[in-house]
Amino acid sequence: MGISWPSGVWKGLSRTMAFKKKLHLYRPGNVPLKVETHRTKQKVRLEVSDPQEIERGVRQLLANKISGTLVGIWLLIPEYLRLGTWDLLKSWSGLPDERVHPRLVLQMINESALCVSGIRMKRTLSQKGFELANGLPFIATDSAIHHLLDSHCVAEAQRLQIALGKVRQTFGHFKGKIIVIDPHRMKSCSKRQMVRRQKDKESNPVKMAQTFFSFDAQTKQPLCFTTASSARTVTQATPELLTLTTSILKLNGHKPLVLADNEHYSVELFEWISSQSPFDLLVPMPYNPSVLRSIRRLHREAFTRHWAGYATAKQPYSLTRSHEGPYHQFIQRKGERQPDDDFKAFLCTSDRDEMEDLSLNYPQRWHIEEFFKNDQALGWHRAGTMNLNIRYGQMTMALIAQAACFMMRQRLGPPVDQWDAPHLAKDFFRGLEGDIRVQGDTIVVTYYNAPNPDLLKRHYENMPQKLSSEGIKPTIPWLYNFKLDFRFK
């Protein structure tokens, strides 16, 4: 039986409650976030991405089982657990496990490992086992990822690089004794007005996007990077880059040697290295008149002969307009007879063993060129947007993908450890046919065409036990604490 309200009371209640309609829309925590996704090759649609919907979608995919050709990317998940990738991503995003944002970033990391370039390639990833590896039931579009990256600043990306570098150092990925710095320039098709630069003396000046890398020469691994427009010079970029490097390395009073090309030969940079940094710097000197005069002043007797056709000498050298110094000029001489002599001069901030630095250490500078050639497809080969928030975020996530791929290569050994990034992506991450199913509390990934299955069985079967023996929790937080195991048939 209904309650009969007096008309005056009812009108009063109506006036009191009218403004309280749809109050749930003003609770930010309850507003469902929608993400633009690639459902099929042609279809793009908005998906609700609140924590309950994501978990429901992931568990439904696991219950249905999955077959596809992108299940090879699951081989990187143990490396992510070893690196503590999920904690790094949560710290960067500032959000807890159940939110979509760290998962979107994990998608970007896995796309880097696949060497995905362009929308056409990205929209073919759906429904092949890829999205589930990210803890998602869908593939987010580039615009969704870009909105996420643009909401985070450059300083946050740099803090993530430092945290990743410190984790990698605990694994012995960096020796920290010989550091190479070098700019990596990519041609830009932007219509913006910007400084044009020459790649070499024979090429015409073009618009460039610049990324400055710090690289461990002995382990051949990148430490960190900074990126900027083409207007920034190496003299401006190097202090920031080496400050990031200092935050990663445990120097313990040791002064690492920084190797650079002659583009870094500047008074300002040498003064900063000498007075404000914990590094030594060694760069080639240009063949200008003052350098040539300093070489000619040396007699042949001043050179120390080390082997046939090779001798070295060193002497103090002051840079014009420099308030620091004097620095130390290292000179190498090639040739046995005086008419055949060929000289090359280098400038160093400290008095070091010139024979060791010139004949053993400086040639290691070329390892960074090998790195660019082998790994730039992970995310450092295209200029892309000039929005630095997005570029820093995207390239930093590529750094995480590179670390995981390196650990996987080292684990598998030859010949996989010599493969470049596109080769690894083609033959492993995009080249393995398999299925995904759940057995109890464990996700089991089965591969049917894996090369060298005995090697893979040794490293990947019984994965929960292997991770536990290393002191690593075997549950996967972005997959709702399922464990992961592999089978090779």
Task: Describe the structure concisely for a colleague.
The protein is α+β, with helices and mostly antiparallel strands and 489 residues long. Helix content is 38%, strand content 20%. The chain has 2 domains: 36-151 and 433-488, no CATH class; 154-198 and 205-400, Transposase Inhibitor Protein From Tn5, Chain A, domain 1 (Alpha-Beta Complex).
Overall geometry comes to elongated
Work out the number of β strands.
17
The CATH architecture of the largest domain can be named as: Alpha-Beta Complex
Treating each run of at least 4 consecutive H or I residues as one helix, how many helices?
Answer: 18
What structural class do you assign from the helix and strand content? alpha+beta
Spans of at least 5 consecutive residues with low confidence: none
Classified in CATH, the superfamily of the largest domain is: Transposase Inhibitor Protein From Tn5, Chain A, domain 1
CATH fold-type name of the largest domain: Transposase Inhibitor Protein From Tn5, Chain A, domain 1
Strand content: 15-25%
Distance between the termini: 69 Å
Helical coverage, percent range:
25-40%
Largest β sheet strand count, sense and barrel closure = 10 strands, mixed
**How many domains would you count in the coordinates?**
2
Average residue-wise pLDDT = 89
Class of the largest domain in CATH? Alpha Beta
Spatial extent as radius of gyration:
28 Å
Q: Would you mind describing this structure in some detail?
A:
The protein has about 500 residues and is an alpha+beta fold. The chain has two domains: about 170 residues, no CATH class; about 240 residues, Alpha-Beta Complex (Transposase Inhibitor Protein From Tn5, Chain A, domain 1), CATH 3.90.350.10. It is about 40% helix and about 20% strand. Strands 5, 6, 7, 8, 9, 10, 11, 12, 13 and 14 form a ten-stranded mixed β-sheet that branches. It has a four-stranded mixed β-sheet with strand order 3-15-16-17. The longest helix is centred in the last third of the chain and has 25 residues. The chain is elongated. The N and C termini lie far apart (about 70 Å). The mean pLDDT is about 90.
